């Protein structure tokens, strides 16, 4: 009787596996043919290639673990955990908000709002009196950008609303939505006043150089107000971002300490506090 039950269980497992195998095989035929038309399928093909060791873009920044930058016991809030194409991954979101919780920035600046998922999480994890500024290029200005955009940037610029995910949230009052092109935006009201910058606007090489230099000028330094942080998204994922950051680290002393957070596409520059 016992042997019969075990045999039935064995058959169920075997047929279960064969069914999944056939389903996956048929889906793969679709994925690599008609499925190519869908962006999410192209992303999946990229993940499969990476799984089997394909490296599209070589990175040069030194690697740093998230646990060496933040404490394990840091409590965080995660809002809108399920991301969509254009958002950071869940691990990246956790890394970003852990750094926010650790450094308690009072003024935060995000370049590239998109649907506002990261903006919302910056607001939820910063001190109650913090201000979160987030700049986005309106769809109407797509063809007036000062510098050449990366081809795929347009995909994220074309949307009806910037920051849809933070609308109506309890912490939305901390968020100040700004509109403009990061290459021509007047950052003068923010110079030397910002504690935390997240750069995730255009992924084109020249934009990343320009946004990085603007971010550095915005940092409040030398007044004893604590450690400052600049984070970039898509290092190692987009050629323009990767080349710009590798070059900045190599050529410009202010960016020499750039690091790549392991298992993410986040690059970071931690500027330690100096006493005034
Ligand atoms: C990849 S999405 C940002 C994702 C968002 N930071 C997140 O974490 O979910 C890029 C955003 O940058 C904006 N953008 C692209 N080029 C820009 C520019 N030159 N100036 C300002 N924003 C720009 C786009 O409109 C888009 O909303």
N-end to C-end Cα span: 81 Å
- Principal-axes geometry comes out as globular
Helix/strand order: HHEHHEHEHEEHEHEE
Q: What is the SS-derived class?
A: alpha/beta
Count of DSSP H/I helices = 8
**Ligands (ions, cofactors included):** S-adenosylmethionine
The average pLDDT score comes to 95
Question: Count the strands?
Answer: 8
From the alpha-carbon coordinates, what is the Rg to the nearest angstrom?
22 Å
Summarize the main sheet: 8 strands, mixed
Q: Name the poorly predicted regions.
A: none
Q: What assembly state would you assign to the polypeptide chains in this entry?
A: single chain
Which strand-content bin applies to the residues? Answer: 5-15%
Q: Which strand order spans the largest sheet, edge to edge or round the barrel?
A: 1-7-8-6-5-2-3-4
Proportion of residues in helical segments: 25-40%
Verbal overview:
This protein is α/β, with parallel strands linked by helices and 276 residues long. The protein has helices at 2-31, 39-51, 66-69, 90-103, 117-125, 153-157, 205-218, 239-251; strands spanning 63-64, 107-111, 131-136, 175-179, 196-199, 228-232, 259-261, 267-271. The chain has eight helices and eight strands; from the N terminus they run ααβααβαβαββαβαββ. Strand 3 (131-136), helix 6 (153-157) and strand 4 (175-179) form a beta-alpha-beta unit. The mean pLDDT is 95.
In brief:
37% of the residues lie in helices and 13% in strands. It is of the alpha/beta class and 276 residues long. The longest helix has 30 residues, at 2-31.
List the helices and strands and how they pair.
Blueprint: H1 2-31, H2 39-51, E1 63-64, H3 66-69, H4 90-103, E2 107-111, H5 117-125, E3 131-136, H6 153-157, E4 175-179, E5 196-199, H7 205-218, E6 228-232, H8 239-251, E7 259-261, E8 267-271
Helix pairs in contact: 4-5, 7-8
Bound molecules: S-adenosylmethionine.
């Amino acid at each position: 009787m016992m042997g019969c039950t075990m045999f039935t269980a064995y058959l169920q497992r075997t047929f279960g596996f064969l069914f999944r195998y056939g389903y996956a095989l048929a889906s793969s035929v679709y994925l690599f043919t008609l499925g190519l038309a869908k962006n999410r399928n192209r992303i999946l093909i990229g993940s499969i290639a990476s799984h089997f060791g394909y490296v599209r873009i070589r990175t040069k920044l030194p690697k740093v673990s998230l646990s060496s930058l933040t404490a394990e016991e840091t409590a965080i809030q995660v809002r809108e955990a399920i991301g969509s194409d254009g958002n950071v991954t869940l691990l990246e979101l956790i890394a970003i908000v852990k750094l926010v919780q650790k450094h308690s920035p009072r003024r935060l600046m995000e370049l590239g709002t998109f649907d506002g998922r990261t903006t919302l999480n910056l607001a939820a994890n910063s001190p109650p009196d913090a201000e979160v500024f987030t700049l986005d290029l309106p769809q109407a200005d797509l063809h007036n950008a000062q510098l050449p955009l990366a081809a795929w940037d347009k995909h994220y610029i074309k949307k009806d609303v910037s920051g849809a995910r933070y609308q109506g949230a309890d912490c939305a009052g901390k968020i100040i939505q700004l509109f403009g092109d990061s290459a021509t935006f007047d950052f003068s009201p923010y110079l030397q006043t910002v504690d935390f910058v997240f750069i995730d606007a255009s992924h084109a090489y020249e934009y990343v150089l320009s946004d990085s230099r603007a971010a550095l000028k915005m940092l409040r330094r030398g007044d004893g107000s604590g450690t400052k942080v600049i984070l970039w998204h898509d290092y190692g994922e987009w050629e323009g971002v990767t080349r710009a950051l590798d070059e900045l680290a190599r050529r410009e002393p202010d960016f020499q300490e750039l690091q790549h957070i392991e298992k993410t596409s986040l690059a970071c520059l931690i500027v330690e506090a100096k006493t005034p």
